[in-house]
Backbone:
């Protein structure tokens, strides 16, 4: 075997080992790599009382209510299978609206209401001008906002 | 001697070829950027959800693409340098990393400027953002390693190994938005079912992407030519010190003698 | 014109993005060009000092 060949195989073997190692590590740390859980995933998890966790999903249509203090908002997020009520006091991001994806960070209360200390908006990968969006809605081709 | 002559000729052939390509790359860059900027800032529509902030996409996305493209280029060049000891490959990898670091910085900074108004945060530690931050540090490490050894060939070898090791991060960045729940949305262009961007926004994006790519080619060549000039300069100084009449005058030839 | 500069209320974010991008790209370009020219000039000077015969063999 020539030195070049030997170096070639060494590089290939090194990269293959590295790739496998990386795949194993990423697989093992899956729980730390996900940024949020869906309501369904959350329901299946054992949570310590007061454990801070992030939950994400779509804001359900007609579920947003502002309380009398003018700062607190309650709404429901859904992954279409399960729905979770959320309460949040503070400033919502500009993209927050019904049908839009959000990620809330906070704790799950004993009453089953998720108390968020932070709400982030998540947008989808679709970009279009407002006129096109209106035309699509009018023509009935609107597929709705995906998470 | 024959092989050292071959190595000696390689950078010279590169200088000739790159000298022919460079003006064209520079002209294409100079033409594409004004067109791309005009389309991105004036002639493209606002987004139905994100309004005018969508214009950040026209610098953010090309910069992010280039961050990955440059790293891939660098990793391939590093493999060629390690396996075939091609002197121009080391020079290419070294010239690429500051440009890649620049693109990655742009992607991170414009991402933060886009995230604050739209997501409601400058930064989150989700898989996409974190893996791109790691990419930025890989570039910085690569730049530092080249100069970390007294022997430049050792520095080049260490940097090449780092570039190859870091290459596992490239697919991780690309697929992070599919493998794990992230705040960052999935890909809009490279996705099943075709791009999910309206044509009036896709064109400005592509032209800006080509402008970024032409910029990269231009300054990669400028930097590589400049590094070859520097190598010749070092070699000439060495012969000057050692006295006239020495024939092995470039680091490439010196390396060939050592190998 | 002022509508354009206002960017629908997102002026800070949009213009900072473009400004930062321009600063990085122009900065990297200027650095590379300046260094290339300085090295080129230095090499030319050195070659001129070492004599014309040397120059041919190095190009």
Residues:
């Amino acid at each position: 075997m020539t030195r070049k060949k030997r170096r070639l195989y060494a590089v290939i073997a090194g990269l293959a080992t590295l790739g496998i190692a990386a795949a194993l590590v990423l697989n093992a740390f899956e729980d730390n790599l996900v940024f949020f859980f869906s309501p369904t995933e959350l329901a299946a998890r054992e949570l310590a009382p007061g454990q801070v966790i992030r939950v994400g999903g779509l804001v359900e249509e007609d579920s947003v209510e502002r309380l009398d203090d003018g700062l607190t908002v309650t709404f429901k997020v859904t992954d279409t299978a399960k729905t979770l009520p959320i309460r949040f006091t503070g400033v919502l991001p500009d993209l927050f609206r019904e049908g839009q994806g959000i990620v809330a960070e906070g704790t799950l209360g004993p009453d089953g209401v998720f108390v968020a200390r932070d709400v982030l908006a998540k947008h989808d990968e679709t970009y279009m001008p407002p006129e096109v969006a209106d035309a699509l809605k009018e023509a009935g081709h609107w597929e709705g906002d995906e998470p | 001697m024959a092989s050292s002559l071959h190595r000696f000729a390689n950078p010279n052939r590169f200088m000739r070829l790159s000298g022919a390509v460079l003006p064209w790359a520079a002209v294409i860059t100079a033409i594409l950027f004004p067109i791309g900027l005009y389309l991105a800032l004036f002639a493209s529509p606002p987004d139905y959800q994100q309004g005018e902030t969508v214009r950040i996409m026209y610098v953010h996305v090309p910069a992010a693409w280039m961050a990955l493209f440059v790293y891939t280029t660098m990793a391939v060049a590093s493999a060629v340098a390690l396996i075939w000891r091609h002197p121009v490959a080391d020079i290419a990898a070294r010239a690429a990393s500051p440009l890649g670091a620049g693109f990655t910085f742009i992607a991170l900074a414009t991402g933060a400027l886009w995230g604050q108004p739209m997501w409601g945060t400058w930064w989150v530690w989700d898989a996409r953002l974190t893996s791109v931050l790691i990419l930025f540090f890989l570039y910085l490490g690569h730049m530092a390693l080249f100069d970390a050894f007294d022997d430049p060939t050792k520095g080049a070898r260490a940097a090449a190994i780092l570039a190859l090791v870091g290459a596992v991060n490239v697919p991780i960045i690309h697929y992070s938005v599919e493998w794990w729940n992230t705040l960052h949305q999935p890909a809009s262009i490279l996705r099943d079912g075709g791009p999910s961007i309206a044509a009036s926004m896709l064109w400005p994006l592509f032209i800006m992407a080509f402008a970024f790519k032409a910029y990269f080619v231009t300054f990669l060549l400028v930097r590589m030519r400049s590094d070859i000039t520097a190598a010749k300069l070092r070699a000439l100084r060495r012969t000057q010190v050692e006295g006239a009449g020495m024939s092995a005058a470039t680091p490439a030839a010196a390396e060939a003698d050592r190998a | 014109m002022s509508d354009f500069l206002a960017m629908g209320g997102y002026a800070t974010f949009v213009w900072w993005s473009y400004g930062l991008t321009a600063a990085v790209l122009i900065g990297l370009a200027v650095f590379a060009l300046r260094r290339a020219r300085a090295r080129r000039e230095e090499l030319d000077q050195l070659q001129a000092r070492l004599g014309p015969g040397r120059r041919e063999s190095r190009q």
Notes: The longest helix of chain B spans residues 199-242. Confidence is low (pLDDT under 50) at residues 1-5, 245-249 of chain B. The two ends of chain B are 12 Å apart (CA to CA).
